[in-house]
Amino acid sequence: MHYPTMTIWSLFGCLAILAGTAWAAYERPPYVLPCRRNDPEINKCIKNSFNHIRPYISRGLTELRTPPLEPLRIEELAMENNAGAVRIKALFTDIVANGAGNYTIKDVRSDVKKLRIDMSLGIPRVETRGKYEIIGNVLLLPVRSNGEFWTEFSDISAIAKIFGKPTERDGEMFMSVEKMLVDFTMKNARFKVKDHVNTQSVLGEAINQFLNQNANELIQEMRPAASQSIAKLFRKFLNDAFSNIPMRLWLLED
Prior knowledge:
By secondary structure, the chain is of the alpha+beta class. The strands form two sheets. Strands 2, 3, 4, 5, 6, 7 and 8 form a seven-stranded antiparallel sheet that branches. It has a two-stranded parallel sheet with strand order 1-9. The longest helix has 28 residues.
């Protein structure tokens, strides 16, 4: 249920790269399209900048330590859901996602004075695979499982709300992210797991059938926990990036 949020790496990778990089001579690389603070169409500018850098971040940028989006690799993702019919603790590892680089930024709303940026994006299709460990209850039934997973999600929409603040260091102004909120929706989902605990083939097939028959309900139950976990991870990611990028490189004064 967490996997569509992997697509959210696409969004935050874009934001980090849009800011540019602190080159020794402060030269502007070709993937950075800066925006002017007082531009009356700054939202359009930010949107165009995010879409402009898509082919660059798909391949990855070593100078910014930005991992490739195709495929996107995540070592570990943990989440916990304590409400509703699905109450579980889950750990996902060795995650590989394909399709995140095919994002499109659809809309941006910003308040540069407050360093507030809201944006939405769409992803046609994302396929993920990796390992998992789950313990808890689903529909009052105890669940304990670990093994390998495969998922496919299509028609994904994601929203990110970023709350920043200016921070001064060494005579330069930087942006730090105080809070981040993320959410997502999708139209279709498919699951497949290879359970290493419940090794009976009949039970394993029953688990796969249950996941696919109840995909929408399970995703809806897990969405708040997944969104919270991803927001926490990406807040750190953005702060690591912006702590080395002066604001004047990506937000120009008139």
